[in-house]
């Protein structure tokens, strides 16, 4: 019997490895390049954001970004890179002017401020009935000189570092020798007491205008304290501590309050602030509190004196750079103009410093976002 041969097996195709399409390979290389550039550019953009925050708050940046600045290579290379310390910056050596501490130590190692304070000489005549003395020359100053926080400052703090900061600040010569009017006005019982004796008040105002360390050094010192309190008392600021927030506001207002306190009435050669205390109408005194974020009461009637007009001019110049004035000046300006005539107090435009900072950071953030999206396509 015939047996047919077996049927041949079907041919087996050799497996050919899939070939990567050329188009896919090109796309893969493109994505790789994008990721590489993103890795390089995103950190660079973040560095620029951080740097811009510090640069635009430096006086050199204000010059470059201000209107009227000559945008040419010569001015940019000279002004744009001028990073010498501004007069309100502290010296690099803080050991001489910042770290001099006095007072007694507690068991915890904290410095307890001295409770000694100046005692004003009482007057039997009301301040409104006393003659306003002229600006003195090297008068005899009360000893000790009135100091901020001359009462007990041991109260509730959210952090020990904040209590330590206040204890040290109020005892160091770098602060006490500067006699900040912005702080005395709010926190010194001795300073308030001198307002009953215009002769003594006159000498105290002279002392705040002529600190032993000099105005420039004091502006640097107080600016240092304004920066330091924001770190040492960060927890208390977050907890909305009235003491800390008002102190920070007063520290920032040192320079403008110094200028306001030292303003003179040229017709009488007397301090404007002493005249304000002398007036029976307290409205003039209210205007001095604007940089401390305290508004002039709407019910007050301005005297419309040349002194108040000068004070408002000082505040108008400081308005773009002092947050407290941005809150209180516009309503005071409106009140003064209504009572004293249009143009009595300068009108002010909205501050552009903060807006400029926001625009720059927004643009840089948009750049980062664009780079991120670019890598997805």
Short summary of the structure?
This protein is mainly α.
Overview of the structural elements:
With 377 residues, the chain is mainly α. Helices cover 53% and strands 2% of the residues. The protein is built from 18 helices and four strands. The protein has helices spanning 22-55, 59-65, 73-79, 94-97, 160-169, 173-176, 181-187, 189-194, 198-209, 215-232, 234-238, 242-252, 254-261, 272-278, 283-287, 306-318, 323-340, 353-374; strands spanning 104-105, 111-112, 264-265, 270-271. The strands form two sheets. A two-stranded antiparallel ribbon has the order 1-2. It has a two-stranded antiparallel sheet with strand order 3-4. A hairpin with a 4-residue loop joins β3 (264-265) and β4. The longest helix is centred in the first third of the chain and has 34 residues, at 22-55. It is elongated, with a radius of gyration of 33 Å. The protein starts with 21 loop residues before the first helix and ends with a helix. Mean pLDDT is 76; it is low at 53-119 and 352-362.
Runs in which pLDDT lies below 50 for 5 or more consecutive residues are: 53-119, 352-362
Count of extended strands: 4
Shape: elongated
Instruction: Summarize the main sheet.
Output: 2 strands, antiparallel
* Fraction of residues in H or I helices: 40-55%
Strand-pairing-aware structural class: mainly alpha
Secondary-structure blueprint of this entry?
Layout: H1 22-55, H2 59-65, H3 73-79, H4 94-97, E1 104-105, E2 111-112, H5 160-169, H6 173-176, H7 181-187, H8 189-194, H9 198-209, H10 215-232, H11 234-238, H12 242-252, H13 254-261, E3 264-265, E4 270-271, H14 272-278, H15 283-287, H16 306-318, H17 323-340, H18 353-374
Antiparallel strand pairs: 1-2, 3-4
Helix pairs in contact: 1-18, 5-10, 9-14, 10-12
């Amino acid at each position: 019997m015939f047996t047919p041969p077996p049927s041949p097996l079907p041919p087996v195709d050799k497996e050919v490895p899939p070939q990567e399409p050329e188009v896919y390979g090109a796309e893969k290389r493109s994505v790789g390049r994008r990721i590489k550039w993103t890795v390089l550019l995103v950190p660079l953009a973040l560095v620029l954001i951080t740097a811009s925050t510090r640069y635009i708050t430096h006086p050199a940046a204000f010059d470059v970004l201000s209107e009227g600045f000559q945008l040419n290579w010569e001015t940019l290379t000279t002004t744009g890179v001028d990073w010498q310390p501004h007069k309100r910056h502290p010296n690099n050596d803080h050991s001489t002017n910042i770290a001099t501490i006095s007072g007694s130590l507690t068991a915890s190692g904290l410095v307890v401020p001295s409770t000694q304070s100046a005692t004003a000489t009482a007057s039997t005549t009301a301040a409104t009935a006393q003659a306003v003395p002229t600006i003195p020359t090297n008068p005899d100053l009360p000893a000790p000189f009135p100091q901020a926080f001359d009462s007990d400052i041991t109260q509730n703090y959210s952090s020990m570092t904040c209590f330590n900061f206040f204890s040290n600040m109020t005892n160091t010569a770098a602060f006490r020798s500067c006699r900040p009017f912005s702080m005395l006005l709010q926190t010194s019982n001795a300073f308030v007491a001198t307002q009953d004796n215009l002769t003594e008040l006159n000498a105290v105002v002279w002392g705040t205008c002529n600190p032993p360390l000099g105005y420039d050094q004091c502006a640097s010192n107080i600016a240092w304290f304004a920066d330091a309190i924001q770190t040492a008392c960060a927890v208390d600021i977050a907890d909305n501590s009235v003491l800390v927030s008002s102190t920070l506001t007063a520290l920032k207002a040192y320079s403008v309050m110094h200028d306001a306190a030292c303003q003179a009435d040229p017709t009488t050669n007397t301090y404007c602030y002493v005249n304000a205390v002398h007036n029976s109408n307290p409205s003039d005194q209210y205007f001095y509190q604007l940089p401390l974020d305290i508004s002039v009461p709407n019910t007050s009637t301005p005297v419309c004196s040349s002194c108040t007009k000068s004070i408002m001019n000082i505040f108008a110049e400081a308005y773009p750079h002092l947050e407290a004035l941005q809150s209180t000046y516009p309503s005071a300006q409106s009140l003064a103009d209504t009572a004293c005539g249009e143009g009595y107090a300068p009108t002010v435009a909205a501050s552009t410093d903060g807006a400029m900072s926001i625009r720059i950071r927004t643009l840089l953030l948009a750049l980062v976002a664009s780079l991120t999206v670019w890598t997805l396509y």
